[in-house]
Amino acid sequence: MSAQCKSSVDFCSIPLIALNFGVRKRVGLYLNPRNAVAADWTALAEAMGFSYLEIKNYEKCENPTMSVLEHWQAKGSEASVGRLLSILEEAERKDVITDLFSAIEKDCLEYLKKASEAPVQVPEVDSCEPRTAEKRGITIRDDPQGVSPEMFDAFICYCQSDFSFVCEMINQLEHTECRLKLCVFDRDVLPGTCVWTITSELIEKRCKRMVVVISDDYLESDACDFQTKFALSLSPGARSKRLIPVVYKPMKKPFPSILRFLTLCDYTRPCTQAWFWIRLAKALSLP
Which residues, in sequence order, are bridge partners of residue 161? Predict the structure, then answer.
């Protein structure tokens, strides 16, 4: 009988965000050490769909298991507690499940309790009325009633094909001594939101700056185009400091003309990669 069957909790319906840092850290204690016999964090990452190059990149992390869980969580709905338990079972790491099951179950029950305490959503007469922080939370860590809206150092504007670089950005800027807080839409925003309204509120009211990940695919994205133009339109004086364009791979198409007056952070040049993240972190930390 699997561990999931021993509990009344439906782990498959609970997103990975329910697991707190304590449990994630303890999972890392089991999986971080490279083991020639038992499956380690690399097996976990492979089962989660990460590529060889992505897994090689995680080797640089101080806590690769923590980073893999964070980035898998950012990928979408597949990242559930139930799926994590299944992966551990398939990898024959039932020792991890057995030792941490009570802690995992406790986190899940706490998550369900908080979810049940959220105010019941009352249908609005005008469905076009903006959904703002004063009405209810829009990010996963918001106060549901909007009393203490979650704030960020930067909003990350990107298209899905560039998400692997966004994951690296999360690792370099959030999980290091930089300690910055990034707003990544697919990771931080509650599902079912009105994309355009919520994006505008995040850029204007919640984020000090916006990092624009430029690529050929970015130029074809209507969402990225909207986000960039909206940020530029907020005020002329903000143009030199609010937006930070980043290029991380060579482009075949022309660089967007509306961003040419801004200082570019170029990750494609080998001579600048050594201090690229330090430079970006300092730019995002400015008052």
Answer: none
